[in-house]
Specification:
Length: 311
């Protein structure tokens, strides 16, 4: 069976929290362990998206796999099992992607008309899909979207569809259907018409000359492996810093109040001493057991129909 996506795994983990901790250490210790687990599950998408951004923007100029912030890059080959930067890539689509930093600028994202499935997913820092853009034969020649961060207070031009992001970090993930290797040139033509530029350039008509990025060998990692290898202090303090610029949703307020008791939340400082003398060992066990636990629990949500299994 195909790998379970990260988002589903994280959702399922909340449902099965009670099965992931032991009870012989007393209610106080047990409560801390459960809260640490909740905090890890809650913060995991945020930390992983940030690690993915660090890897995929770790370049001076755009390539087919990376680009500096606020710039598009386009894959030119269909994905196979060797692709590790993002889980469960489609094998019949080419991807165009960009990581946005909306703290100082608003960006315009333009989707061209296409004769096939062509979708743009705009996600916030927690992997929530805030907007799904589409294109096809029934659409106008193109559709332009204004993507703004949580602190934006400028005007919204009438010819732009406003996408108000709740976080300053955002991820655009475009998928264009390919009918095989012989069809790739047609996909490249669609990709070349996808645009991403600052609002100021869109309004003025000035050519957008993106700034060069930078490369650091320390960010040349596989994102999921990098996150899973973090110490408790590295993981939670990374999350705490990220939550300042990427505030949790108001619907998550109860969770934020709960995990703040262990030093996890916007601007807080996590002290690993709260884990106790055996905290690192229990942390390692939690990480190692997480995938197996979530996979086994997820099977309860599958329905078999002929030779397929559906969520």
């Amino acid at each position: 069976m195909k790998k379970i996506t990260k988002i589903i795994c994280l959702f399922l983990s909340l449902l099965f929290l009670s099965g992931c901790t032991a009870s012989q250490n007393g209610p106080k210790t047990e409560s801390i362990k459960e809260t640490i687990y909740d905090a890890y599950v809650y913060a995991f998408p945020l930390v992983l998206v940030n690690a993915t951004m660090e890897k995929m923007t770790n370049t001076v100029e755009p390539t087919t796999t990376q680009a500096p912030p606020n710039q598009l890059f386009h894959s030119h080959n269909l994905a196979n099992a060797s692709a590790k930067d993002v889980v469960t890539l489609n094998t019949d689509t080419l991807y165009s992607q960009a990581f946005l930093d909306l703290s100082d600028t608003a960006m315009v994202f333009v989707m061209p008309k296409a004769d096939r499935f062509c979708s743009g997913e705009i996600m916030d820092a927690y992997t929530n899909a805030v907007k799904i853009t589409g294109s096809g034969s029934d659409n106008p020649d193109q559709t332009a979207f204004l993507i703004t961060g949580p602190d934006y207070s400028g005007e919204i031009p009438q010819d732009l569809v406003h996408v108000a992001m709740p976080t300053n970090m955002a991820w655009i993930l475009c998928r264009v259907l390919s009918y095989g290797e012989a069809d790739l040139d047609n996909v490249y033509a669609i990709q070349n018409n996808i645009q991403l530029l600052p609002l100021t350039n869109y309004l003025s008509g000035e050519a957008y000359i993106p700034a060069k990025g930078s490369y650091s060998e320390s960010n040349n990692f596989i994102p999921i492996e990098h996150v899973l290898q973090m110490t408790p202090a590295e993981f939670f303090n990374t999350a705490n810093a990220l939550m300042v610029a990427n505030p949790p949703a108001s619907a998550d307020q109860a969770m934020i109040e709960k995990i703040s008791a262990v030093g996890v939340g916007p601007g807080l400082e996590f002290d690993p001493a709260i884990l106790g003398d055996s905290g690192q060992d229990e942390w390692n066990t939690m990480i190692n057991d997480l995938s197996t636990t979530l996979f086994n629990d997820s099977q309860d949500f599958l329905v078999k129909m002929n030779n397929w299994r559906f969520w």
